[in-house]
Amino acid sequence: EERERERQTERERERGGEKREERERENKRERERERERRERDEREREREREREREREREREREREEREREERERERERERRERGERERERERERESKQEIEREREREREREREKRERERERERERESKQERERERERERERERERERERERESEQERERERDRERERERERERERERERAREREREREREQTRDRERERERERERGERERERERERERANKR
């Protein structure tokens, strides 16, 4: 009987040691899972920071692109204006030269036919006025055409801006969907953690009941 009690005591000590070891192993696993969760959270935060830096770089690239396009349009406008001024000066020079030649011819003819030349001079002046009027009309038409082109370009630019905004909105929606998916994954992971914890609790309860039955059988013996 004394030896039986000693064996019983020894078995109790062994079971107590096993239980402590099990708790230590469980604590160690829990600390490992906690460390892994912290590392996952830190990686996720780092990815989010990187995505924000990328969005900032994208905004900076878009701003530079807009500025570049604006500078290009300004240079193009200046080139057109310089070309137009040069053509206008050339027309004025040609007109002056033509007038001077005409005057020279007129002086030659005037010496012979002054009266008739006065009539022709009036006709020429009338003709020049009509030509100037036609030129002014052509210039007004060119200006209207340039205005229509500017308006068309502005509309195309507005459409490009709207398309870029729609693309940014789609990207933001995709980002929100990814965030929702990450949240759902975290919830599923937490559910699995809780399920595993309940399973461990059930197993511990089962082991405890088994030890209780073992003690009852030992007591009966």
Report on this model:
- The chain is mostly helical and 221 residues long.
- The chain is built from two helices and no strands.
- Helix 1 (2-112) packs antiparallel against helix 2 (114-220).
- The longest helix has 111 residues, at 2-112.
- The model has no long low-confidence stretch (mean pLDDT 90).
Task: Give a summary of the structure in a few sentences.
This protein has 221 residues and is mostly helical. It has two helices and no strands.
Provide tags for this entry.
single chain; mainly alpha; 99% helix; rod-shaped
Q: How many distinct helices?
A: 2
The strand count comes to 0
Please give the largest β-sheet: none
Distance between the termini: 10 Å
- The oligomeric state is single chain
Low-confidence stretches: none
Residue share in β-strands: under 5%
* Overall average pLDDT: 90
Basic shape: rod-shaped
What secondary-structure arrangement, pairings included, does this model have?
Blueprint: H1 2-112, H2 114-220
Helix pairs in contact: 1-2
